[in-house]
Structure formats: structure tokens, C-alpha cells
Design brief:
By secondary structure, the chain is α/β, with parallel strands linked by helices. The chain is built from 2 helices and 7 strands. The chain has a single domain, classed as 2-Layer Sandwich (Secreted effector protein pipB2 fold), CATH 3.30.2450. Helix 1 runs antiparallel to helix 2.
């Protein structure tokens, strides 16, 4: 896939993760016909996207009935085209499609490289049904990670963690 992509009627819009909790890598993926766009992103970006899409659905008539035929599994092999730096969301004038715009993260030092200085960009126009299926799928994916410390809110490993609320003393 090129560094720039536009999907006006994607067959699939989903998110997934590969790896063990605490070491997972998250991917946003869209497909349209034979084209596959796979973008790497952070867990916080997945959570924010789900929250924002949920708000857009609520503001534009409520969440649609869940359609179990909407594909939510990642297409393999998973090969990211680039890493997401920023996400923006809009609604088309007729309100029928929600547009997700992603821009590539430019790594420090790459801004001087003419081949890497211009970020990749993707525009994905999803249906309300696709957004309605994406939200609970993304929320479940985000919440399936490591448990969170009740004191500080940071993720805990199976062995616990050093909690700053306990002045850094001992793992719990």
C-alpha cells in the first residue's frame, strides 16, 4: 500500500493487537476490494478513537443495531504501512459516513530526509454500522490488557509494580 490511501467504501474497518499484554502492538486496519491498509498505533489512540466514535454516533442519532456480519478480525499477514501520529474524525455532510483521517508519525531525525519528511496520510469513510461494530470491539481489546493499579491507575505486571502512590516502596 502506498503512503497515502483513501477508502471511500471499506469492506473492513477494525483494530487488533498482537503480543502479550504489556507488550502488545496495536493495529488499525481497513480493506477495500484487494487493498489492505494496516497502521500501527498506540493503545491510548485506540481507546480515544473508540470513545470519540461512540460520541459521534450518539450525537448523530444513536448507535446503530450491531450487525454481526461486519468483519472485525485483522487480515493476515499483519504488515504495518506506517505508524499513526495523529487521528482526526469528521462526519460527511449527509451524516451517513464517519471519516477517520490518520497521519503518519515522523520520527525524530526523519524531518531532514526528503523521502521521510512528508507524512503518509489515510482517509477512511466508514458507515455508522461499521463504527457501531468498531466501538465495543475496540473497548474490549483495550480492556483485555494488564490489570490497572487501584491506587495509581498504572498497568500492573503479574509480579505487581512499584506504585508511586506508595512512595515507590514495594511492589503490589
Amino acid at each position: 500500500m502506498s503512503r497515502n490511501a483513501s477508502f471511500d467504501q471499506p469492506d473492513r474497518f477494525t483494530v487488533g493487537a498482537v503480543g502479550e499484554p504489556g507488550e502488545r502492538v496495536f493495529y488499525l486496519q481497513a480493506t477495500q476490494a484487494a487493498d489492505v491498509l494496516t497502521l500501527r498505533l498506540e493503545k491510548q489512540q485506540v481507546a480515544a478513537l473508540a470513545t470519540y466514535l461512540e460520541g459521534v454516533l450518539a450525537d448523530t442519532g444513536g448507535a446503530p443495531t450491531l450487525d454481526p456480519s461486519i468483519p472485525l478480525a485483522l487480515v493476515t499477514p499483519i504488515e504495518p504501512d506506517w505508524t499513526v501520529g495523529s487521528l482526526a474524525i469528521g462526519v460527511e455532510e449527509d451524516g451517513q459516513r464517519i471519516v477517520i483521517a490518520a497521519e503518519e508519525l515522523i520520527a525524530e531525525g526523519d524531518e531532514d530526509d526528503p523521502l521521510r519528511a512528508v507524512p503518509g496520510a489515510a482517509r477512511i469513510a466508514i458507515t455508522r454500522s461499521q463504527a457501531g461494530a468498531f466501538v465495543p470491539h475496540a473497548e474490549a481489546l483495550v480492556s483485555s490488557g494488564r490489570p490497572v493499579c487501584a491506587l495509581c491507575g498504572r498497568p500492573m505486571d503479574p509480579s505487581g509494580h512499584v506504585c508511586p502512590r506508595k512512595n515507590g516502596h514495594g511492589a503490589h
